[in-house]
Design goal:
By secondary structure, this protein is an alpha+beta fold. It has 2 domains: 70 residues, 2-Layer Sandwich (Herpes Virus-1); 100 residues, Rossmann fold (3-Layer(aba) Sandwich), CATH 3.40.50.410. It is built from 5 helices and 10 strands. A hairpin with a 5-residue loop joins strand 7 and strand 8. Helix 3 runs antiparallel to helix 4. The longest helix has 17 residues. The protein starts with 19 loop residues before the first strand and ends with a helix. The relative contact order is 0.10.
């Protein structure tokens, strides 16, 4: 207990006292520790002045303060139940790492090894911008400095990315979809990604359409609320 008040610690054992006693000089000790000390010494371990067992008396005020401190420490410790996985730390794996250079950026791709065990389930809330600006066609950088317009809109591209996420989740994972334009809407409640959940999530995704303004804050707020309210 790094924040323990120094006067709560026995000067002999340096541990939190449970049965403190006080001498005539006002120094407190753990009863068992000072009694053991006085079996071999006749002086105070602090002041070196004469000290005997009959000079000691219970320090009830200090004991009550220590008990109150213990109770506060116990109540402040929360137990969080989490899903855990066991990993053999003695195992080693080869990672496939590739890199490429494009437009002054280095792109690094890491492919994890297969069959290293089951990961912990995850909850994902996808917050999607469906405002009118998402109807803009995607532009692709051509071989020259010119940009080429694509037949896909920005929302089409986002939908494709979300489909990849949906198909990569397992039945132990859960997903929700929130769209935002003028305001946020939960278009798909937090649900396990089993076969039915995956099918329903894809159907909800296809219904997204561009309209309205961009209320990003309402989208973020709603997304956080979905995850908080759906905590396992």
């Amino acid at each position: 207990m790094a924040d323990t008040p120094p006067n709560f610690l026995c000067p002999i054992t340096h541990e939190l006292m449970t049965d403190p006693v006080i001498d005539s000089d006002g120094n407190s000790y753990e009863r068992s520790a000072i009694e053991e000390w006085l079996k071999q010494h006749s002086t105070s371990p602090i002041t070196r002045t004469p000290l005997h067992l009959n000079d000691l008396r219970p320090n009830r005020a200090l004991r009550e303060s220590i008990e109150e401190y213990r109770n506060k420490q116990s109540s402040s410790k929360t137990i969080t139940k989490t899903n855990s996985i066991t990993i053999d730390i003695n195992q080693s794996f080869d990672l496939k790492v590739t890199s490429s250079w494009l437009n002054e950026f280095t792109h690094i791709s890491i492919q994890p090894p297969e069959g290293i065990g089951i990961r912990a389930p995850c909850d994902i809330c996808c917050v999607v911008d469906t405002s009118g600006s998402m109807s803009t066609n995607v532009e692709i950088q051509g071989t020259s400095d010119d940009k080429e317009s694509c037949v896909l809109s920005q929302l089409d591209l986002v939908k494709h990315a979300l489909k990849t996420i949906i198909h990569s989740l397992t039945q132990n994972d859960r997903l929700s979809i929130v769209s935002f334009a003028d305001c946020a809407t939960i278009v798909f409640e937090l649900h396990q990604m089993d076969d039915d959940g995956r099918s329903n999530a894809l159907a909800a995704l296809e219904k997204l359409d561009e309209n309205g303004q961009t209320n990003l804050w309402d989208g973020l707020r709603t997304g956080v609320e979905v995850l908080v309210e759906g905590q396992r």
